[in-house]
Structure formats: C-alpha cells, structure tokens
C-alpha cells in the first residue's frame, strides 16, 4: 500500500534469504537430504572439491516418502560421468536397491498409509467442488464471465491504468450480493510496437449475473442481446505522471457477447476536449482535463427517461483502444432440451419462453417421486406374510 507517495513495504524481494523462503513458501515440508559422493580425482590429488561428484541424492520428508535421484538402475544401463582433464576419463556406475524385501505387515501398513492419504485428498477435492450440482430455477439464465484486460494502445501519454465496471439492465437482471462488478488495473508502462505504444496489463477479473424471465407472454420475450438490453462493460483509461497526477485518456463501452465461449473485444475510446491552446497546456502541465460525471453517458445513461438523447455541441476526440478477452459460460434448464428442438431455437433466451411448461413438468415429477417414496414406506411397514409372494391367503 501507499501512504502519500511512500511505499510501506517492498512488493518484490529480489534476493530472498533462506529464512524468508522458509517462512513464506506455501508448501514447507521438512526434508532430510543425504548425498552419495565420489572422489574421482587422479592419484595423489584426492580430497579436492573440484573432483567431487554427486552419484545419488536421497531425500526423506516428514510423511516418510523417500525420493531417490537418479532412480534405481534396474534394467536400464549404467549412469555415466565424463571427466575432462589431462586425459579424458569415463566412469560408469549403477544404483541398486539391496534392501531386504518388505514384510507382509509392512506392506499392509504402507497400503493403509496410501489409502488414508488418497482418502484425505479426495475429501479435500470434494470440499472444494461440493456434492450437489447447483441448478438454476426454470426460466433463469446464469452468466459467468472470466475476463482479462489484455492491453491498451494508441494513447498520448505513458503509465496507463484502466478503471472498468459492468452495468446490468434494471429489469430482470441481478447479481449476488457479494459480487463485485468493478475493478481497476495496475499502472503499466507502454512499449513501442510499430507505430503505436502498447501497455500490456493481463489483469484478470470475474463476475456472475442472472437473468430471470418473469413474463410468460410471447410478446414480452426478452430482447437480449439486442443493443441496450444486455449487460454493458464500461471502461475508463487514465494516465499517471511523475507527480502522481492523472489525466483522462478515453472512455469506452461494449455490450457483453450473447453467446458462450471465448471472445476478444476491442473497445475504441474517446475523451471530451476543449478548444484552444490553454486547455492543452493545462492538461500537459497540471494534469487537469474534462471528465464525465456519469460514466454511463458513454452510451445511454440509465437515468435518461426521454425519447431522444441529444449530444449537440459536445466536443470529443478519438483516442486509442482497449482489448478485453472474455470467457463466457451460460447455465440454464433450457439447455437440457433435445438436439432436434435446439436446432429450431435461435438462442437460449428464445427457449426460455416455455419455462412455465418446464416448471409444471418438474412439479409433476417431484409429486410422483414423493408418492412412490410413500408407497415404498407403506410396503416396508406391512407384515412380511402379506407382501411375500409365497404367503398363504386365508379366506
């Protein structure tokens, strides 16, 4: 973090000490290491470090796992060591396991250890994934986006950063309460690429949103991804100078793709400007420039209630562009339809028209399962001579 313009701590430790690595490494399993060495010096020059060679390394961790490197020779040929000196020498050696065979009790104990280890690993994975597959309610579409701010290019000044946020339509769209729909990248210096200066951010972000179709009438089908009806990604590009002053370099917006899969989007930007030399001098020396009070003014603001939005007299200048890479996933019950029906549907939102029928079928199946379960419980509670086929019927 920063306090004023002074860094509180170093972000990168270029020369970490062994204690620093030991305290900050994620996996810190204690190891015991043994080396099998060979002194291959010529006669009369034994004991010199330059003639020592490592033949084999054995490591034992706290779990009792032994690592041998290089591995036991077995059916492979011997290992080779070539020595350059007054005369070239070639040494060959093998690594053999001459330990006595394990007793049946030891092998059984080893199998129990492996079984316990694999069992704990399976429980750990299950705790991450969960046991139940979370389904959407009928008529709903869940949208997952794993995105990346890739780069920005074509701007006037250096040291760029991007502020972005996602705006959901006010009707039928929502997001979880914990979901963050905005972000800001790190400040990135540009590098020359042809005639342009490019800043590579590679900044990842993710968010989730849900669309719920509440109206069942055919005339009220949702129009997404028609323009102005889907989630919109807004971005603002700014530059930072040596004195920590920022300038607005451009604004842009794009409608999120309606189809799942990987998408690369290039958002062209613009910025408001003033005429005259004084405005450019102010922008260069003190960093002041015109800014939008509401970033949604890049398109049609959500607060606008009229029929026509006039921007007459609003002066702007085209600037650079920002590249986004989006990986979109969609989840809906409508995807479970047969392939023949899916070919006749234009999009998933068209298939949501019949979500009321899906809901009724779902309710019927649930009622059937409950009735069957009650019948099985009643059958189990009856005496065996009544339900057994070999029972005797008394008239």
Fold topology:
Layout: E1 2-3, E2 6-7, H1 18-24, E3 31-39, E4 52-61, E5 66-69, E6 79-83, E7 89-93, H2 104-129, E8 140-153, E9 160-167, E10 173-174, E11 182-184, E12 191-193, E13 196-212, E14 232-240, E15 246-255, E16 261-272, H3 277-285, E17 316-331, H4 339-344, H5 348-351, H6 355-381, H7 384-387
Antiparallel strand pairs: 1-2, 3-4, 4-5, 6-7, 8-13, 8-17, 9-11, 9-14, 10-13, 12-13, 14-15, 16-17
Organism: Mustela putorius furo (European domestic ferret)
Keywords: Cell projection, Cilium biogenesis/degradation, Cytoplasm, Cytoskeleton
GO biological process, one term: cilium assembly
Give an overview of the whole structure:
It is found in: Cytoplasm, Cytoskeleton, Cilium basal body. This is Meckel syndrome, type 1. The protein has 395 residues and is an alpha+beta fold. It has three domains: 8-99, no CATH class; 103-133, no CATH class; 140-216 and 225-302 and 313-333, Sandwich (Immunoglobulin-like). It has seven helices and 17 strands. The protein has helices at 18-24, 104-129, 277-285, 339-344, 348-351, 355-381, 384-387, and strands at 2-3, 6-7, 31-39, 52-61, 66-69, 79-83, 89-93, 140-153, 160-167, 173-174, 182-184, 191-193, 196-212, 232-240, 246-255, 261-272, 316-331. The strands form five sheets. Strands 8, 10, 12, 13, 16 and 17 form a six-stranded antiparallel β-sheet that branches. It has a four-stranded antiparallel β-sheet with strand order 11-9-14-15, with no helix packed on it. A three-stranded antiparallel β-sheet has the order 3-4-5, with no helix packed on it. It is flat, with a radius of gyration of 34 Å. The N and C termini lie far apart (90 Å). The model is unreliable at 1-7, 216-228 and 389-395 (pLDDT under 50).
């Amino acid at each position: 973090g920063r306090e004023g313009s002074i860094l509180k701590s170093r972000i990168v430790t270029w020369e970490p000490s062994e204690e620093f690595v030991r305290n900050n490494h994620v996996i810190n399993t204690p190891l015991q290491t043994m080396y099998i060495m060979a002194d291959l010096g010529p006669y009369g020059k034994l004991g010199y470090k330059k003639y020592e060679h490592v033949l084999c390394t054995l490591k034992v961790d706290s779990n009792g796992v032994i690592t041998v490197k290089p591995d036991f020779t077995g059916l492979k040929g011997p290992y080779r060591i070539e020595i350059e000196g007054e005369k070239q020498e070639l040494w060959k050696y093998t690594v053999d396991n001459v330990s006595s065979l394990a007793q049946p009790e030891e092998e059984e104990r080893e199998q129990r250890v492996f079984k316990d280890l694999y069992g704990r690993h399976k429980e750990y994975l299950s705790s991450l994934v969960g046991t139940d597959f979370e389904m959407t309610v009928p008529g709903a579409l869940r949208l997952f986006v794993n995105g990346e701010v890739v780069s920005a290019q074509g701007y006037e000044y250096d040291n760029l950063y991007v502020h972005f946020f996602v705006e959901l339509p006010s009707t039928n769209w929502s997001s979880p309460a914990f979901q963050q729909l905005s972000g800001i990248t790190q400040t990135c210096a540009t590098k020359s690429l042809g005639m342009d200066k490019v800043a590579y951010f590679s900044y990842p972000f993710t968010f989730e949103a849900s669309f719920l179709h509440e109206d069942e009438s055919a005339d009220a089908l949702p129009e997404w991804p028609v323009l102005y009806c889907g989630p919109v990604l807004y971005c603002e590009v700014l530059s930072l100078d040596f004195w920590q002053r920022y300038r607005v370099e451009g604004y842009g917006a794009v409608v999120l793709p309606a189809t799942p899969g990987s998408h690369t989007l290039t958002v062209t930007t613009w910025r408001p400007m003033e005429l005259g030399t004084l405005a450019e001098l102010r922008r260069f020396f003190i960093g002041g420039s015109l800014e939008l009070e509401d970033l949604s003014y890049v398109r049609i603001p959500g607060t606008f209630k009229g029929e026509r939005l006039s921007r007459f007299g609003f002066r702007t200048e085209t600037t650079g562009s920002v590249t986004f890479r989006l990986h979109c996933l969609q989840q809906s019950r409508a995807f479970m339809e047969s392939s023949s029906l899916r070919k006749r549907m234009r999009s998933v939102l068209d298939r949501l028209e019949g979500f009321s029928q899906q809901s009724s079928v779902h309710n019927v199946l649930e009622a059937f399962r409950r009735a069957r379960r009650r019948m099985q419980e009643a059958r189990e509670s009856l005496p065996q001579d009544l339900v057994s086929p070999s029972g005797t019927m008394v008239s």
